[in-house]
Amino acid sequence: MTDDSGELGLEYEIDDRPPLLESVLLGIQHVSVMIVPATAVAFIVAGAVGLGVADTAYVVQMVLLFSGLATVVQAYAVGPVGSRLPIVMGTSFTFVGAATTIGVDYGLSAVFGAILVTGFVVEGLIGWQFDRIKPFFPPLVTGLVVVIIGLYLVPVGMDYAAGGVGAADYGAAYNIGLAALVLCVAVALNLFTDGITRLLSTLVGIAVGYVVAWVLGVVDFTPVAEAAWFAIPRPGAFGVTFEPVPIVTFAFLFLVSAMETVGDMSGITAAEGRNPTDEEFRGGLFTDGFMSSIASVFGAFPVTSFSQNVGIVNFTGVMSRYVVGIAGVVLAVLGLSPKVGAAVATIPSAVFGGAVLLMAGMVAASGVRLVFLHTNLDRRNMVVVAASLGLGLGVATRPDALSGLPQAAATFFGQPVIVTALTALVLNTLAPGDQSPLFDAADESVAADGRASTDD
């Protein structure tokens, strides 16, 4: 439900502090929907480059630790770094392909060297100058970025719901059943209950699915027994080297990450019926870049805003950054204790998939809402929407269509977020309209002077 300004009926606003126990449970709910995909990136890359069990566990540990630290910085800020918005940070699948390929061809030291350089330079520069480029990112553009982030997460959620890509039991009836159970419980509690059960609907859904999965015997506790209780971060664990091709590749990917973060911040503030401020945009982008560079020194992959958790905020109506700060602390603790992290990671993919499907849909819906609230969908804007989503979903669903391009171009234009964002950015900028940075000011001055009518 919304008020006249388009704001959702928030249970807790950005500076509210729910009771401690409720805040902890809400924070754990945030952790529960992002911990599997965040750590999956580490598992995938580690497996591809041939890391042993101990090194793989260490990379997972660092991903959790720096996801937590970045989340706290994002929510509360350290100087200019941090948006002061309830944004949960984690390692994005955007970087999996490049990290795997470069890790095999050049070694992990080249991966971490490229992250160290490009995190600071690319996202730092974008954040520093964002007030100058902000007119190029009106609600029409940022809303479309939020929509495509949600839509391309849907196949990921379906893969998890089926048991995980490559799983021997992919598509098994019990996997689909577990995912459906989680989704149904979360939706039912959110729509038909009030109070704490509605706020924790996603966490309760995951908990019910987890218990049923344990009864069915599909929960494996072996990694918990093998994990250590405590481990200390080691700077330079995998070395740092600088190679031109990895640096250029990660520069493109950090551009994608910046666009995702702009979209996620817009999705968060859409709950208040507004776009982020210049300061929020700048601080959020600084967090992406600076924390990713610092994390690379310790052997973690880039940290960026997590779209699933934008869906949590919109789904529950809990926008408190205090809650998200607690989620960051929980993540950091998990990162310091591999045994605890291993216990959380025993959540079956199908259980997690039910939650991701719901969150992906909510992210896309929040993007649609952002466009509708601030954009007149006339012919010009409908063309921008159609072209942007058509191309973005096209490369997302049929990436092989770009196989004839040079590898660098195929990698760059194979990213649905960047294709959607660039298409919307170019068309919105060049086509005359009230959201174009090249034409809107001129149109307004002409109308004010009475030399033209705004009726079109």
UniProtKB/TrEMBL annotation:
Source species of the chain: Haloferax massiliensis
Compartments it resides in: Cell membrane
Keyword Transmembrane helix: yes
Gene Ontology, cellular component aspect: plasma membrane
NCBIfam families associated with the record: ncs2 (TIGR00801), NCS2_1 (NF037981), pbuX (TIGR03173)
Family statement drawn from the similarity comment of this UniProt entry: Belongs to the nucleobase:cation symporter-2 (NCS2) (TC 2.A.40) family.
Protein known as: Uric acid transporter UacT
Record has Transport as a keyword: yes
Keywords (A to Z) from UniProt: Cell membrane, Membrane, Transmembrane, Transmembrane helix, Transport
Mode of membrane association: Multi-pass membrane protein
GO MF, one example: xanthine transmembrane transporter activity
Regions crossing the membrane: 31-52, 58-78, 110-128, 140-158, 170-192, 199-217, 237-256, 322-344, 350-372
UniProt xrefs under PANTHER family: PURINE PERMEASE C1399.01C-RELATED
Pfam families assigned to the protein according to its UniProt record, in alphabetical order: Xan_ur_permease
InterPro entries, per database record: NCS2, UacT-like, Xan_ur_permease
